[in-house]
Specification:
single chain, alpha/beta, 43% helix, globular, binds nicotinamide-adenine-dinucleotide, SDR family NAD(P)-dependent oxidoreductase, SDR_fam, NAD(P)-bd_dom_sf, oxidoreductase activity, EC 1.1.1.-
Length: 249
């Protein structure tokens, strides 16, 4: 399959988990893929890494300039970099609220601002944001993280509207708990990792965690010409967690 042949994609947070799976799939389907990450590390061929902290406007601008200088164009932006935070509203101070919103929300804004002039020149322009089931589900002890992903959902809808005239589609995916290094770190920190894994799996009706590749499938679909009529969509990849939620008596 080569539906991305001749196109250039940027994937933030593309050195691990969902971002890495997405970058690999886009490359397998013909895209030239630039991975922007705090720690791009040793990426598999043919991915190209660019060190970039999405919380720095100067680094984001420089990275997008470097990608376009290297590959000559930009067609697909996958805003995937994100960080977590635990606790209810009393669990994090102002500094932590600013830090997480800065990475998870303003990071996507910075990337989009830098990418838009290039995307406007593409006939296949698309942005896909990695949101979360946390935007909808009222997860326990995730107030800050949920607020950040609620903002990503609203940002996706606003951008889809604003950039209709530019013919830039903007969509998001909403993963449930996905089996990535991020979740691996959470499990390692739990008192009983196996029990914690089972509890996370049990809250998804399919009874298992979703895989990074399953989330990447959805991102790649939304970025692809197959989704040419889709903008402003939020696609859940959550083992039925949201769609099949208990709806009361
Ligand atoms: P991960 O920790 O495996 O990968 C995240 C990547 O983002 C890492 O390579 C990291 O270096 C990079 N990153 C972090 N901060 C950055 C910054 N400031 N600038 C640039 N890069 C940065 O995580 P993952 O599980 O693959 O999560 C990816 C996205 O999916 C996140 O937005 C997360 O909120 C979302 N998500 C994950 C799950 C899940 O269960 N894993 C569920 C819903 C949503």
């Amino acid at each position: 399959m080569s539906e991305f042949e001749g196109l250039v994609a940027v994937v933030t947070g593309g050195a691990s988990g969902i971002g890495l799976a997405t970058a690999r799939q886009l490359a397998a389907r013909g895209a030239k893929v630039a991975v922007l990450d705090l720690r791009p590390g040793d990426l598999p061929e043919p991915l190209t890494g660019f060190r970039c902290d999405v919380s720095s406007d100067a680094e984001v601008t420089a990275a997008i300039d470097a990608v376009v200088a290297r590959f000559g164009r930009l067609d697909v932006l996958v805003n995937n970099a994100g960080i977590g935070a635990a606790g209810d509203v009393t669990g994090n101070g102002d500094d932590e609220w600013h830090r997480v919103l800065d990475v998870n929300v303003v990071g996507m804004v910075r990337l989009s601002r830098a990418a838009l002039p290039h995307l406007r020149r593409s006939a296949s322009a698309s942005i896909v944001n990695t949101c979360s089931i946390a935007a909808w589900a009222g997860l326990p002890q995730r107030a800050l993280y949920s607020a950040s992903k609620g903002a990503v959902l609203a940002l996706t809808l606003a951008m889809a509207t604003d950039h209709l005239p530019d013919r830039i589609r903007v969509n998001c995916v909403c993963p449930g708990t996905a089996d990535t290094p991020w979740v691996g770190r959470l499990l390692d920190a739990a008192a009983d990792p196996e029990a914690e894994r089972a509890a996370l799996a049990a809250r998804q009706p399919m009874g298992r965690l979703v895989t990074a590749d399953e989330v990447a499938n959805a991102i790649v679909y939304l970025a692809s010409p197959a989704a040419a009529s889709t903008t402003g969509a939020a696609l859940a990849v959550d083992g039925g967690m949201y769609g099949l939620r208990p709806r009361g008596p």
